[in-house]
Protein backbone atom coordinates (compact mmCIF):
# COMPACT_ATOMS: atom_id res chain seq x y z
CA UNK A 1 0.00 0.00 0.00
CA UNK A 2 1.29 3.44 -0.87
CA UNK A 3 2.24 5.77 1.96
CA UNK A 4 -0.71 8.14 1.37
CA UNK A 5 -3.08 5.15 1.19
CA UNK A 6 -1.75 3.82 4.49
CA UNK A 7 -2.09 7.28 6.08
CA UNK A 8 -5.69 7.56 4.81
CA UNK A 9 -6.50 4.10 6.16
CA UNK A 10 -5.13 5.04 9.58
CA UNK A 11 -7.11 8.31 9.60
CA UNK A 12 -10.27 6.40 8.69
CA UNK A 13 -9.70 3.89 11.50
CA UNK A 14 -9.04 6.63 14.04
CA UNK A 15 -12.18 8.50 12.97
CA UNK A 16 -14.19 5.25 13.03
CA UNK A 17 -13.04 4.58 16.59
CA UNK A 18 -14.29 8.01 17.66
CA UNK A 19 -17.56 7.84 15.73
CA UNK A 20 -18.45 4.30 16.81
CA UNK A 21 -17.50 5.08 20.43
CA UNK A 22 -19.84 8.07 20.40
CA UNK A 23 -22.70 6.69 18.30
CA UNK A 24 -22.44 2.90 18.31
CA UNK A 25 -24.07 1.21 15.34
CA UNK A 26 -25.71 4.50 14.37
CA UNK A 27 -22.27 5.87 13.49
CA UNK A 28 -22.27 6.49 9.76
CA UNK A 29 -19.54 5.94 7.22
CA UNK A 30 -20.28 9.46 5.97
CA UNK A 31 -19.45 10.92 9.39
CA UNK A 32 -16.31 8.79 9.54
CA UNK A 33 -15.22 10.07 6.13
CA UNK A 34 -15.92 13.66 7.22
CA UNK A 35 -13.89 13.30 10.43
CA UNK A 36 -11.06 11.54 8.61
CA UNK A 37 -11.12 14.28 5.96
CA UNK A 38 -11.36 11.77 3.13
CA UNK A 39 -14.05 10.98 0.59
CA UNK A 40 -16.62 8.27 1.21
CA UNK A 41 -15.07 6.46 -1.76
CA UNK A 42 -11.76 6.33 0.13
CA UNK A 43 -13.51 4.75 3.12
CA UNK A 44 -15.10 2.09 0.93
CA UNK A 45 -11.91 1.51 -1.03
CA UNK A 46 -10.22 0.43 2.21
CA UNK A 47 -13.30 -1.16 3.80
CA UNK A 48 -15.87 -2.45 1.26
CA UNK A 49 -18.60 -2.82 3.91
CA UNK A 50 -19.42 -1.10 7.17
CA UNK A 51 -18.88 -4.46 8.89
CA UNK A 52 -15.34 -4.62 7.47
CA UNK A 53 -14.73 -1.15 8.92
CA UNK A 54 -16.15 -2.14 12.33
CA UNK A 55 -13.98 -5.26 12.44
CA UNK A 56 -10.83 -3.42 11.41
CA UNK A 57 -11.53 -0.72 13.99
CA UNK A 58 -12.05 -3.33 16.73
CA UNK A 59 -8.85 -5.16 15.75
CA UNK A 60 -6.84 -1.93 15.70
CA UNK A 61 -8.18 -0.92 19.11
CA UNK A 62 -7.55 -4.34 20.67
CA UNK A 63 -4.02 -4.37 19.24
CA UNK A 64 -3.41 -0.94 20.79
CA UNK A 65 -4.59 -2.22 24.20
CA UNK A 66 -2.52 -5.40 23.83
CA UNK A 67 0.59 -3.37 22.99
CA UNK A 68 -0.01 -1.22 26.08
CA UNK A 69 -0.41 -4.33 28.26
CA UNK A 70 2.83 -5.76 26.88
CA UNK A 71 4.64 -2.45 27.35
CA UNK A 72 3.52 -2.30 30.98
CA UNK A 73 4.57 -5.92 31.48
CA UNK A 74 8.17 -4.79 30.97
CA UNK A 75 7.95 -2.64 34.12
CA UNK A 76 10.29 -3.83 36.86
CA UNK A 77 7.42 -3.66 39.39
CA UNK A 78 4.73 -6.17 38.27
CA UNK A 79 2.22 -4.90 40.84
CA UNK A 80 2.55 -1.30 39.72
CA UNK A 81 2.39 -2.43 36.10
CA UNK A 82 -0.81 -4.39 36.71
CA UNK A 83 -2.39 -1.45 38.56
CA UNK A 84 -1.49 0.85 35.64
CA UNK A 85 -2.94 -1.65 33.20
CA UNK A 86 -6.19 -1.82 35.18
CA UNK A 87 -6.50 1.97 35.14
CA UNK A 88 -5.80 2.09 31.41
CA UNK A 89 -8.30 -0.64 30.63
CA UNK A 90 -11.02 0.94 32.74
CA UNK A 91 -10.52 4.33 31.10
CA UNK A 92 -10.64 2.80 27.61
CA UNK A 93 -13.03 -0.06 28.34
CA UNK A 94 -16.21 1.68 27.24
CA UNK A 95 -14.80 2.18 23.72
CA UNK A 96 -13.62 -1.44 23.58
CA UNK A 97 -17.00 -2.76 24.69
CA UNK A 98 -18.85 -0.55 22.20
CA UNK A 99 -16.67 -1.80 19.35
CA UNK A 100 -17.04 -5.45 20.38
CA UNK A 101 -20.80 -5.01 20.76
CA UNK A 102 -20.94 -3.93 17.11
CA UNK A 103 -19.51 -7.27 16.00
CA UNK A 104 -21.82 -10.16 15.13
CA UNK A 105 -22.93 -12.36 18.02
CA UNK A 106 -20.45 -15.12 18.76
CA UNK A 107 -20.03 -18.08 21.02
CA UNK A 108 -17.21 -18.61 23.51
CA UNK A 109 -15.24 -20.54 20.90
CA UNK A 110 -15.13 -17.46 18.66
CA UNK A 111 -17.64 -18.81 16.16
CA UNK A 112 -19.04 -15.92 14.13
CA UNK A 113 -16.02 -13.66 14.43
CA UNK A 114 -13.50 -13.16 11.66
CA UNK A 115 -10.04 -14.62 12.12
CA UNK A 116 -8.39 -11.20 12.65
CA UNK A 117 -10.91 -10.28 15.36
CA UNK A 118 -10.55 -13.66 17.07
CA UNK A 119 -6.75 -13.35 16.97
CA UNK A 120 -6.90 -9.81 18.41
CA UNK A 121 -9.27 -10.88 21.21
CA UNK A 122 -7.05 -13.88 22.04
CA UNK A 123 -3.90 -11.73 22.07
CA UNK A 124 -5.57 -9.18 24.35
CA UNK A 125 -6.77 -11.87 26.76
CA UNK A 126 -3.30 -13.42 26.74
CA UNK A 127 -1.63 -10.10 27.55
CA UNK A 128 -4.08 -9.48 30.40
CA UNK A 129 -3.51 -13.00 31.76
CA UNK A 130 0.28 -12.58 31.53
CA UNK A 131 0.17 -9.27 33.41
CA UNK A 132 -1.95 -10.83 36.15
CA UNK A 133 0.25 -13.92 36.41
CA UNK A 134 3.36 -11.77 36.59
CA UNK A 135 1.85 -9.75 39.44
CA UNK A 136 0.80 -12.97 41.20
CA UNK A 137 4.28 -14.46 40.87
CA UNK A 138 5.71 -11.32 42.46
CA UNK A 139 3.21 -11.61 45.33
CA UNK A 140 1.49 -8.42 44.19
CA UNK A 141 -1.91 -9.93 43.37
CA UNK A 142 -4.19 -12.51 44.94
CA UNK A 143 -3.11 -15.96 43.83
CA UNK A 144 -6.71 -17.14 43.41
CA UNK A 145 -7.73 -14.35 41.01
CA UNK A 146 -8.15 -15.39 37.39
CA UNK A 147 -8.00 -13.41 34.18
CA UNK A 148 -11.73 -14.07 33.80
CA UNK A 149 -12.32 -12.51 37.25
CA UNK A 150 -10.31 -9.47 36.23
CA UNK A 151 -12.17 -9.24 32.93
CA UNK A 152 -15.55 -9.18 34.71
CA UNK A 153 -14.32 -6.47 37.07
CA UNK A 154 -12.93 -4.41 34.18
CA UNK A 155 -16.21 -4.63 32.27
CA UNK A 156 -18.18 -3.55 35.33
CA UNK A 157 -15.89 -0.59 35.98
CA UNK A 158 -15.83 0.40 32.31
CA UNK A 159 -19.64 0.53 32.26
CA UNK A 160 -19.62 3.23 34.92
CA UNK A 161 -16.56 5.13 33.70
CA UNK A 162 -17.60 8.48 32.31
CA UNK A 163 -15.03 10.68 30.59
CA UNK A 164 -14.19 13.62 32.85
CA UNK A 165 -15.45 11.94 36.04
CA UNK A 166 -12.21 10.35 37.15
CA UNK A 167 -12.61 10.83 40.92
CA UNK A 168 -15.35 8.28 41.59
CA UNK A 169 -14.08 5.79 39.06
CA UNK A 170 -10.50 6.08 40.34
CA UNK A 171 -11.78 5.37 43.86
CA UNK A 172 -13.66 2.31 42.57
CA UNK A 173 -10.55 1.11 40.72
CA UNK A 174 -8.60 1.51 43.95
CA UNK A 175 -11.15 -0.59 45.83
CA UNK A 176 -10.97 -3.30 43.15
CA UNK A 177 -7.16 -3.24 43.25
CA UNK A 178 -7.29 -3.58 47.04
CA UNK A 179 -9.62 -6.56 46.65
CA UNK A 180 -7.20 -8.13 44.19
CA UNK A 181 -4.34 -7.50 46.60
CA UNK A 182 -2.57 -5.24 44.12
CA UNK A 183 -0.58 -2.35 45.62
CA UNK A 184 -1.58 1.01 44.26
UniProtKB/TrEMBL annotation:
Domain of life of the source: Bacteria
Alphabetical list of SUPFAM superfamilies matching this protein: Homeodomain-like (SSF46689), Tetracyclin repressor-like, C-terminal domain (SSF48498)
First and last residue of the signal peptide: none
DNA-binding region: 28-47
The HTH tetR-type domain, residue ranges: 6-65
Keywords: DNA-binding, Transcription, Transcription regulation
UniProt keyword annotation of Cell membrane present: no
GO MF terms held by the record: DNA-binding transcription factor activity; transcription cis-regulatory region binding
PROSITE patterns xref list: HTH_TETR_2
Pfam families cross-referenced by the UniProt entry: TetR_C_43, TetR_N
Protein name listed in UniProt: TetR family transcriptional regulator
Organism of derivation: Streptomyces antimycoticus
Lineage of the organism: Bacteria, Bacillati, Actinomycetota, Actinomycetes, Kitasatosporales
